[in-house]
Amino acid sequence: MKGKDGFALVMVIILIAFLAIVSIGLVALWQGAVNQLVQQEESMQAYYLARSGAAALASWIISHPSTATSIANIKSTQIHLKSGSVGTVQVMATTTSNNGNITVISTGMVNNARETLRVGLINGFNFNKAIITKNFPNGISGNVKIIGGIEYQNTSLLTISGSASVDEVVSEGPVSGNVESIIKIPPSLATSTPPPNLNNLKIGSTLIINGLTATIATFTNNTANIANTLGFNSNGVNGSWTLVTCSTQSGTQYLLLSATNTQASIKISGNPGATLTIYAPYASVTFGGNVGINGSIVASSVTIKGGGNRINVNLSTISSNIFNSYIIKPGSWSY
C-alpha cells in the first residue's frame, strides 16, 4: 500500500507541476496578447495625434497665408493638449527652397508608440463653392439658379427671393428664401483672401486645374480683348483686370483675375461659353441679363441682376503660384 501511495503522490506532484507550467505559459501568452493590443491601441492613438497635429498646422497656414513664411522652417514645437489627454504631439514646417512649397511634419507619441506623418502645401486656391464673397448688395433675386453653393463671409441677412434658388449657403449670418441647405458655421476661408500674383503669369507655364494639367496659352489686360473674348460690352470693365486663357485636355479654361482694390468692377453679360473662373477678392462682379457661367467666383461683392442667370461650379482647386495662398497637395499625406 505504501508503494502505491508513494506512486500516487508522485503522479499528483507531476500533474501539479504540469498544470503550473501550462498555466504559466497561458498567462505569458495572455500577457503578450494584452501587451500587443495595448501597443496597437497606443500606436493608433499616436497616429491620430500626429494627423491632428499636421492638420492643425496646415489649417493655420491655409487660413493665414501672409504669415506662412514665418511659420515655415520653425523648429519642432509641442502642441499642448487638454488636461488629462494621453500623449504628446510635436509639429514643424519646412519650406522647399526652390519653389516655396511647405511640408508639415507631425509626430504623435503615446508612451513607447511613435508615429510621424507628413503633408505638403502648395500655392493654390480651393474654389469649394460656386460663389465666395463678402457682400451681396441686393441679395439674390430673379430667375437665378446657383449650383455648387455660396460661401457668404458676412453676418448680415442674405435674402434669396423670387424664383431664385441656391442649393447650399455656408454663413454665420441669417439666410432666408429658397435654399436647400444652410450650414451655420464660420466660412472656411479667411476674409482677407490674398490677391493674385500677376507677376508669376508666364505663357507656356503649367498649373493644375481640378486634377487636369493646364498650360497658359495667352493672357491679356486689354479691356477690349477681355470683353471680346468673353462676349460682352467693354464698357462694363473698370479698373485693372487680366484674362488668362488655359488649355487642358477637356478644353479651354478662362481665369479672370484682379489684384487691385475695390474700385475695380466688371459686368458680365452673355454666355462666355467655356469655363470661366473669376478670382478678384478686392473687386466687384455684376451679372446682367441671361448669363451662364461654368466655374467659380471669388469677389468682394457680387450683384446678380436680370433673369436667366445660371452659375454652376465645376472645379474645386487650382494649383499655381499665381495665388498667394496655400492648399493641401493632393495625395501628399504620407508616413
Key terms:
two-stranded parallel ribbon; 335 residues; elongated; 3 helices; alpha/beta
Q: Could you explain the architecture of this structure?
A:
- The protein has two domains: 136 residues, no CATH class; 185 residues, no CATH class.
- 22% of the residues lie in helices and 39% in strands.
- It is built from three helices and 23 strands.
- It has a 21-stranded mixed sheet that branches.
Fraction of residues in helix: 10-25%
Low-confidence stretches: none
| Number of E strands | 23
Structural class: alpha/beta
Mean pLDDT: 82
Span from first to last CA?
73 Å
Number of helices: 3
| H/E element sequence | HHEEEEEEEEEEEEEHEEEEEEEEEE
Envelope shape: elongated
Count of the domains? 2
> Describe the biggest sheet?
21 strands, mixed
Beta-strand residue percentage: 35-45%
Task: Output the radius of gyration.
Answer: 30 Å
Topology:
Blueprint: H1 2-63, H2 68-71, E1 74-79, E2 88-95, E3 102-110, E4 113-126, E5 131-135, E6 145-147, E7 150-152, E8 158-160, E9 165-170, E10 175-177, E11 179-183, E12 206-209, E13 212-220, H3 223-230, E14 237-238, E15 242-248, E16 251-257, E17 265-268, E18 275-287, E19 292-294, E20 297-304, E21 310-312, E22 317-319, E23 326-328
Parallel strand pairs: 5-7, 5-20, 6-9, 6-21, 7-9, 8-10, 9-11, 16-18, 17-18, 18-20, 19-21
Antiparallel strand pairs: 1-2, 2-3, 3-4, 4-22, 4-23, 12-13, 12-22, 13-15, 14-17, 15-16
